[in-house]
C-alpha cells in the first residue's frame, strides 16, 4: 500500500490590467502613421507586458479564493462549473491534473461545461471555438478573446481556486499585444503590412501579428464605412446598430496601432512594385499583403431590377433600412439561402407578410439535404412564411419609382413593399485580373495551406479564396464561413512571420431561425446519403452526411454538443464510418 502525501499544485494566472483610459494615446499619438520601410533595420519588439511579480494580483481586494470540491469529486475528463461567490469558473480534470478557466465562451457566452473536452482543449457547444485548458488561449474560432486562467491548488484533498474578481466578471482575456515602434523614415504612403478588407480574416490577421510581437506599421483598408463588425448578425439580428456589433471598440485600434482606412477601395495591385493603387489614385507601398476582400452579392438580372426598396444586405444600414420598411408591410425574399432564410425568420413577426421565392424544391437542399430542408420549411410555414418554389422572378414592378409587385415566371404576382435578394455571391477579386496573382475560373484566389498565393509575400484569406482542406484529402475548396475566415487570417499572419503554419481546421458554421439553431461541422459537398437520428418533426435531430462509406459532415438541431463532438473527432484526423452512425 502506497502512501502519497498531499501534493500542492500552484498555477498562477496573469490578469490583463484594466484597459488604459480612452484619453491615453498610443505611442504614435493620435494614430499618426509613423512607419519605416523595411530595409534591414533591426526590429524592436515592445510587448504590452504586465510584469510577472511573485504575486500577479495587483490588488489583494480584487482576489477571491474558494474551496470548490474534493479531489475525488471529478473523474479524469470531467468538467464542472463552480461558484466562487462573486462569479463562476470552469474546473477541469484531465490526466490527473486540475485546471480552471473562464466558464463562458467569449464569443456569445455559451456555457463551456456543456462543450467537449478533448486532449487539452475545450470546444464550445454552440459555435465550435476551442480553448487550451492550460493557458485559456483561443485555438480555433469564432471570437477574438481567450479565457482567463485561474490558479488551482490542492490542500488536504480539497481543490481551491484563486481568481481575480474582475476576470470572473468579464470572463474574457485579450492576449498581450505589441505596439508599433515609431522609427525614422516617416512615410504616409508606405506600410509594412497592408490588409485589403476588414472582415474577420483581416482583423484576426492584424491582431495575430501584434500578439506575436510584430511592431511595424499595419494598415487595413475597407470599402465599408465602419470598423470591423460581426457580419453574421446582419441577417440574424437586423436591428443592430454598427457600434453594437463592432468586433473591437475604436480605442482598441488606437492602442495597438492598427490603422483602418474606411471607405477606401483598392482598384489594382502592382506586384512588381509592391504597390496597391486606390480608386481615388492614392498609392501605398507594402512589404507583405493580405487580400481578404470577401465576396459581392449577385443582383437580380430581371426587368425592373433598379427599382427602389430592393436590397442586398451588405451593411448594418441595409439591414436597419429593411426592418424599417418591412414593419407591417409585404416582404418578398428571393433565394432560400442562409441569408434569405435568416432574414425571413427575423421579419416574420414584424412584417404583414413574408414570401420566399426559390429555384429549388426545398430550402437548403444542396447543403442540408432534402429531408432536413423540408423539416425547416415546415417550421417556417408554421410561422406564416409562404414559399414559392421551383420558380424565379421575371419582373419587379414599381409605382412612383418604388417597388409595388414581384412577378414570378410561374405567372404569380406578389404584393411587395420591400424585396431582399439572397441569390448567392461572387468573389470580390475583379481588381486583381491583371495582377499576376493566380485566380481560378470562378474568380477565387488560389492559396496553399499557408494561405500564400503564387506571389511571394502576397497572402489571401476568407470568402474570396480556395484552399486545400485537410479534412477532404487537401481538395481545393471555398468555405465562405465566419469561423474559417478567422482561422485563415491567423494562419496568414503566422506565415507572414515565417512560422510555417499550415491550416488544418474543421469547418464549423451555424444558422439561427425562430430562436432555434442548426449547427454544422465538416465539408459535405458532394454527399451521397444522409443518416438521420432523432425526430425531424420535433426538430430534435442529428444528420450525418456521408460520401461512399465515410461521414464528411454533420448537422444538428437541439442535440448539443454532438456537432462539437464530431468536429473534435474529425480534427483528430479520425475517420467516422457510415456504419458507426447508422
TrEMBL record:
Subcellular location field: Mitochondrion
Alphabetized GO MF terms: 2 iron, 2 sulfur cluster binding; metal ion binding; oxidoreductase activity, acting on NAD(P)H
Residues of the Rieske domain: 66-161
Biological classification of the source: Eukaryota, Metazoa, Chordata, Craniata, Vertebrata
GO cellular component: mitochondrion
PROSITE patterns: RIESKE (PS51296)
Name of the protein in its database record: Apoptosis-inducing factor 3
Gene3D superfamilies tied to this protein: 3.30.390.30, FAD/NAD(P)-binding domain, Rieske [2Fe-2S] iron-sulphur domain
Keywords of this entry: 2Fe-2S, Apoptosis, Electron transport, FAD, Flavoprotein, Iron, Iron-sulfur, Metal-binding, Mitochondrion, Oxidoreductase, Transport
Main location: mitochondrion
UniProt record, GO biological process: execution phase of apoptosis
Function of the molecule: Induces apoptosis through a caspase dependent pathway. Reduces mitochondrial membrane potential.
Family classification: Belongs to the FAD-dependent oxidoreductase family.
Amino acid at each position: 500500500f502506497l502512501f502519497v502525501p498531499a501534493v500542492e499544485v500552484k498555477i498562477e494566472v496573469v490578469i490583463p490590467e484594466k484597459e488604459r483610459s480612452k484619453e491615453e494615446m498610443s505611442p504614435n499619438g493620435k494614430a499618426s502613421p509613423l512607419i519605416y520601410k523595411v530595409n534591414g533595420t533591426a526590429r524592436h519588439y515592445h510587448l504590452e507586458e504586465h510584469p510577472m511579480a511573485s504575486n500577479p494580483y495587483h490588488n489583494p481586494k480584487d482576489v477571491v479564493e474558494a474551496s470548490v470540491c474534493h479531489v475525488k469529486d471529478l473523474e479524469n475528463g470531467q468538467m464542472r462549473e463552480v461558484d466562487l461567490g462573486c462569479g463562476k469558473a470552469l474546473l477541469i480534470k484531465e490526466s490527473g491534473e486540475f485546471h480552471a478557466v473562464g466558464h463562458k465562451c467569449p464569443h456569445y457566452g455559451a456555457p463551456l461545461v456543456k462543450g467537449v473536452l478533448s486532449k487539452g482543449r475545450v470546444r464550445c457547444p454552440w459555435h465550435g471555438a476551442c480553448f487550451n485548458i492550460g493557458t485559456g488561449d483561443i485555438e480555433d474560432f469564432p471570437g477574438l478573446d481567450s479565457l482567463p486562467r485561474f490558479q488551482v491548488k490542492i490542500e488536504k484533498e480539497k481543490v481551491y481556486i484563486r481568481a481575480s474578481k474582475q476576470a470572473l466578471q468579464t470572463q474574457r482575456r485579450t492576449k498581450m499585444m505589441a505596439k508599433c515602434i515609431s522609427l525614422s523614415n516617416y512615410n504616409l504612403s508606405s506600410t509594412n503590412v497592408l490588409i485589403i478588407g476588414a472582415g474577420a480574416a483581416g482583423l484576426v490577421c492584424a491582431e495575430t501579428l501584434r500578439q506575436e510581437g510584430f511592431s511595424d506599421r499595419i494598415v487595413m483598408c475597407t470599402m465599408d464605412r465602419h470598423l470591423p463588425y460581426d457580419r453574421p448578425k446582419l441577417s440574424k439580428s437586423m436591428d443592430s446598430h454598427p457600434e453594437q456589433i463592432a468586433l473591437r471598440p475604436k480605442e482598441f485600434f488606437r492602442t495597438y496601432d492598427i490603422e483602418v482606412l474606411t471607405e477606401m477601395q483598392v482598384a489594382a495591385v502592382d506586384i512588381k512594385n509592391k504597390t496597391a493603387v486606390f480608386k481615388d489614385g492614392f498609392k501605398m507601398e507594402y512589404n507583405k499583403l493580405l487580400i481578404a476582400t470577401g465576396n459581392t452579392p449577385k443582383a437580380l438580372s430581371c426587368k425592373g431590377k433598379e427599382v427602389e426598396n430592393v436590397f442586398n444586405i451588405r451593411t448594418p444600414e441595409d439591414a436597419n433600412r429593411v426592418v424599417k420598411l418591412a414593419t407591417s408591410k409585404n416582404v418578398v425574399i428571393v433565394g432560400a439561402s442562409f441569408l434569405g432564410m435568416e432574414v425571413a425568420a427575423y421579419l416574420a413577426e414584424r412584417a404583414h407578410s413574408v414570401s420566399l421565392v426559390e429555384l429549388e424544391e426545398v430550402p437548403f437542399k444542396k447543403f442540408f439535404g432534402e429531408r432536413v430542408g423540408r423539416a425547416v420549411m415546415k417550421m417556417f410555414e408554421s410561422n406564416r412564411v409562404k414559399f414559392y418554389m421551383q420558380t424565379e422572378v421575371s419582373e419587379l414592378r414599381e409605382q412612383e419609382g418604388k417597388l409595388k409587385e414581384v412577378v414570378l415566371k410561374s405567372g404569380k404576382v406578389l404584393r411587395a413593399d420591400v424585396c431582399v435578394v439572397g441569390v448567392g455571391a461572387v468573389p470580390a477579386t475583379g481588381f486583381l485580373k491583371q495582377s499576376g496573382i493566380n485566380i481560378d475560373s470562378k474568380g477565387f484566389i488560389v492559396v496553399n495551406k499557408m494561405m500564400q498565393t503564387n506571389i511571394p509575400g502576397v497572402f489571401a484569406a476568407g470568402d474570396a479564396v480556395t484552399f486545400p482542406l485537410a479534412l477532404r484529402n487537401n481538395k481545393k475548396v471555398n468555405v465562405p464561413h465566419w469561423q474559417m475566415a478567422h482561422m485563415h487570417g491567423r494562419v496568414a499572419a503566422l506565415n507572414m512571420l515565417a512560422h510555417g503554419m499550415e491550416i488544418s481546421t474543421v469547418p464549423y458554421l451555424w444558422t439561427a431561425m425562430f430562436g432555434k439553431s442548426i449547427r454544422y461541422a465538416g465539408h459535405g459537398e458532394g454527399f451521397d446519403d444522409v443518416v438521420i437520428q432523432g425526430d425531424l418533426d420535433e426538430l430534435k435531430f442529428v444528420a450525418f452526411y456521408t460520401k461512399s462509406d465515410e461521414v464528411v459532415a454533420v448537422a444538428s438541431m437541439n442535440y448539443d454538443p454532438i456537432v462539437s463532438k464530431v468536429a473534435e473527432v474529425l480534427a483528430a484526423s479520425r475517420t467516422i464510418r457510415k456504419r458507426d452512425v447508422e
